[in-house]
Design brief:
Blueprint: E1 2-4, H1 14-19, H2 32-38, E2 44-45, E3 52-54, E4 63-66, E5 69-70, H3 86-90, E6 99-104, H4 109-120, E7 130-135, H5 141-153, E8 159-165, H6 168-171, E9 177-180, H7 192-213, E10 219-222, H8 227-236, E11 246-248, H9 251-265, E12 272-273, E13 276-278, E14 286-288, E15 293-294, E16 297-298, H10 299-302, H11 306-318, H12 320-328, H13 334-348, E17 357-362, E18 375-381, E19 389-390, H14 398-417, H15 419-422
Parallel strand pairs: 2-4, 6-7, 6-9, 7-8, 9-10, 10-11
Antiparallel strand pairs: 1-3, 4-5, 12-15, 13-14, 15-16, 17-18, 18-19
Helix pairs in contact: 4-13, 7-8, 9-11
Bound molecules: NADPH dihydro-nicotinamide-adenine-dinucleotide phosphate and oxaloacetate ion (OAA).
Length: 442
């Protein structure tokens, strides 16, 4: 086994320029449970200076003592049990305080793309160190280890800590962001109501855990489907966290809509702006071509085939996920991860003047007459502080109003199905004669 000081990876990151000067200190981050599960017995060293044990066949961290005390913390993984001494870094003044990001379903397909983007600095910026808290289950714990190993091997300078675990009350401790991806996919012949019940329970439990242990201003992005109602369940179970902090991911739909409009107009997709997705992340969603713009011009003036906009375009966005499954054999994972990145970046960077983005948010106080107490995708703007405001003056014509109402009715029906999970009594589930689909269903 080679004993090595943490070496400086090849990069020009300002962190690494400073990290090579750092005195490294170590913390031991293992619960007894995971010590058995994950790692060989832990050697200890009386040294306060770190020696990082690096070998192909062992992830054994070195426990260190500082002032005679072994520092311990629950679940962490391998090299991430060795944390940098951030005090030394503070001298550079250019480093932000470490943020804790939880990801559930961390061994799944979407996470497999997302985690590496988070760790690279692409999302929160090149001066933002992060800790990743990965939530899995007994069935995925081995896979989670594999993910953690790949994160180790990627030598991301901004990634200071990776913890893995199966208990949301441990994994969500002090998190500032919670990206809730893990959910059971709907299988063939399965009713939407059954999915609501199974996944709803997951989000009720996770809401309670966030409420108990997360940072009080945690931002929560629900991806696991049906994401709007799951987000509602989650926020109802987390009364101490502002309801405004909960989002359901509809950014993938926004991105899909921009792409279709760009294709039709023969422009690159960066020319499409002001794209709203209204409503549910389902086939009732409403991609709003009335208010979207291409090169700053209303879409309806650029694309004069209005029948295509009302039918072809709208349906292509609503069912894009299903078409992708037909081709690819599984649901969108890479583009979903990209859209999660976009969704977060839209909250941590100021929205460009005149533009907006779509996200599923709590409807209380909305200016569009949409029923209160739902999570509904609407146009938003952010100052870049993690918060957002609804855009209040978007035009809604009869075409939009009718379709928005349909998506609203669907969400109201979903809400009744999960009343037992939101503290609103006994659930009554009648989703109507036509069982609506997730975008990814064929
Ligand atoms: N909002 C959006 O735009 C989109 C949402 N999605 C949704 O994101 C979710 C995750 O997708 P993806 O990463 O591709 O899925 P995967 O199947 O690859 O991973 C899902 C993870 O969910 C966890 N999970 C939790 N409960 C269950 C359960 N009862 N049965 C099976 N797995 C469970 C599993 O992890 P573990 O065992 O660790 O709990 C699994 O690793 C799905 O709900 C999907 O529909 C997908 C695309 C777009
Ligand atoms: O339906 C699914 O599971 C996947 C999904 O949400 C999408 O592709 O938009």
């Amino acid at each position: 086994m080679a004993m090595a000081e943490l070496s400086t990876p090849k990069t020009t990151s300002p962190f690494l320029q400073s990290s090579s000067r750092l005195r490294l200190s170590s913390k031991l981050h293992l619960s007894n449970h995971f010590r058995h599960l994950l790692l060989p017995p832990l050697p200890t060293t009386p040294n306060s200076k770190i020696s990082c044990s690096v070998s192909q066949n062992s992830q054994a961290p070195v426990a260190a003592q500082e002032n005679g005390l072994v520092k311990t913390k629950k679940e962490c993984y391998g090299v991430f049990c060795l944390t940098y001494d951030l005090k030394a870094e503070e001298e550079t003044k250019s480093w932000k305080k470490l943020i804790n990001i939880a990801v559930s379903g961390a061994a799944g397909m979407i996470s497999n793309h997302l985690l590496f983007k988070l760790a690279s600095g692409e999302v929160f910026g090149p001066d933002q160190p992060i800790a990743l808290k990965l939530l899995g289950s007994e069935r995925s714990i081995q896979a989670l280890e594999g993910v953690a190993m790949e994160l180790e091997d990627s030598l991301f300078p901004l990634l200071r800590e990776v913890d893995i675990g199966t208990d949301p009350y441990e994994v969500f401790q002090d998190v500032e962001w919670a990206l809730l991806i893990g959910a059971k996919p709907r299988g063939p012949g399965m009713e939407r109501a059954a999915l609501l019940d199974i996944n709803g329970q997951i989000f009720a439990d996770q809401g309670k855990a966030l409420n108990a242990v997360a940072s009080p201003n945690v931002k929560v992005l629900v991806v696991g489907n049906p994401c709007n109602t799951n987000a509602l369940i989650c926020l109802k179970n987390a009364p101490n966290i502002p309801a405004k902090n909960f989002h359901a991911l509809t950014r993938l739909d926004e991105n899909r809509a921009k792409c279709q409009l760009a294709l039709k107009a023969g422009v690159f997709y960066d020319k499409v702006s002001n794209m709203t997705i209204w409503g549910n992340h389902s086939t009732t969603q409403v991609p709003d071509f009335l208010n979207a713009r291409i090169n700053g011009v209303p879409v309806k003036e650029v694309i004069t085939d209005h029948k295509w906009l009302e039918e072809g375009f709208t349906e292509s966005v609503q069912k894009r996920g299903g078409l992708l499954i037909q081709k690819w054999g599984r649901s969108s994972a890479a583009s979903t991860a990209v859209s999660i990145v976009d969704a977060i970046k839209s909250l941590v960077t100021p929205t460009p003047e005149g533009d907006w983005f779509s996200t599923g948010v709590y409807t209380n106080g909305n200016p569009y007459g949409i029923a209160e107490d739902l999570v509904f995708s609407m146009p938003c703007r952010s100052k870049g502080d993690g918060d957002y405001e609804l855009v209040k003056d978007v035009e809604i014509d009869d075409y939009l109003r009718k379709r928005i109402a349909k998506s609203e009715a669907e969400l109201l029906a979903e809400k009744k199905c999960v009343a037992h999970l939101t503290g609103e009594g006994i659930a009554f589930c009648d989703l109507g004669p036509v069982d609506t689909m997730l975008p990814g269903e064929v």
